[in-house]
Amino acid sequence: MRAFRFKRALLPTGWSDDVTVEIGDDGLIARVTPGGGPDGAERVAGIAIPGLPNLHCHAFQKGMAGLAERRGPGGDSFWTWREVMYRFLSRLTPDDVEAIAAYAYVEMLEVGFTLVGEFHYLHHDPQGRPYADIGEMAGRIAAASRATGIGLTLLPCLYTYGGFGNAAPNPGQIRFINATDRFVTLMSRSREIVGQLPGAVIGIAPHSLRAVSAEQLREAAAIFATGPVHIHAAEQTKEVDDCMAALGARPVQWLLDEMGIDQRWCLIHATHMTDDETARLARSGAVAGLCPLTEGSLGDGIFNGETYLATQGRFGIGTDSNIQIDAPAELRQLEYSQRLKARARNVMTASEGESTGRSLYTRALAGGAQALAQPMGALAPGNRADIVVLDADHPDLAGASGDMVLDVLVFSAGRGLIRTVIAAGQCVVSDGRHRAREEIAKRYREVVSRLARS
Ligand code: NGQ
Ligand code: ZN
After folding, report:
1. Are residues 176 and 99 in the same domain?
2. Of the residues 56, 58, 80, which should be mutated to test ligand 1's pocket, given the most ligand atoms within 8 Å of the CB?
């Protein structure tokens, strides 16, 4: 049993002073005592808030951040970015993927993401053949999680077709491809791998309505009848148009009508929805997996936040392409994109007087925990001991109390407030730096410089 004592903490009942959190050997919170607690607790200066789940990540894409920011011939788009991404991933070895993922996870922990949902589709060798161990790449993701201490929900991806209408995969996609039967084998192996990692959870990720058939999606949801189901949906307008042509409905509309979307579903992006789709998605209890920095980077469009929130829609946030890994910046970008769209302020809040920072943070906690099927999102017994500690002495926090602390975190000071991060009871970040940053960054630099040269 370990115990930490914080100057102040955000508990399910609100802000409390002098809080002791006792943690079991399983990395879960055993007891929370406001206003004191047992002797012998390790004192941590600062303000404790729950660690955030990162509900959508393709870790390997961290290694290409900055590679696609140069104007190409004839104008750039999501689809030209995807070509660059395919070229980048075509050369990655399992060692490369592990090195890049480990460094991405170090950065996530340093900004307060204590658990990652890895939407994992880089399965096979560069010729598209499964490795001798079909779970080779899944094992590398698990190894990166273990090395860094970030919690993991692994979402192996079902990817069969190159586009709508069961199109053949293009050469850039061959490393992703499995028909349903081989995906079932991959899932069994991935389940074993995840089983060796304490607290790790597995779900499935049919990549998108472009990459699987309607029958496959029904089949996969039935075979894997419990656990998270994540799918990219309605990110680009071209995808909506192609979906109309192929399936006779818009992507989110089709999923709602045909798949019985419920609480185990997470629709990644869900950018282009009519008001009707937005309200129906909200009522379904599913989570919208918003990735505001990536959606901005890729020119996707702006989520229908006002209507979604007005209908009590649930959302979480993801770093997706990892172009920038920064939890407060994701939340800020989400709110600012809504402000620019609505030409209004304090949009992602539901009630008068509510702090926007608090609203964004607590909704992203709950939505992420649900989407990743993890006990987290509040400092309470039975939950993962995932705790982010903010620097109470930071000048930007002068005079701030209560929820204003979260407004300062999201809108002004940002990640600079984050000093200590505890994941599953282990103190992995102190003074803003991950305990293995040096060696993991060294390996990352070697890998990325080699990739840049070749
Ligand atoms: C992905 N990323 O799977 O990494 C996708 C791009 C696709 C985003 N959609 C590829 N942001 O959607 O086909
Ligand atoms: Zn994605």
Report:
1. yes
2. 58
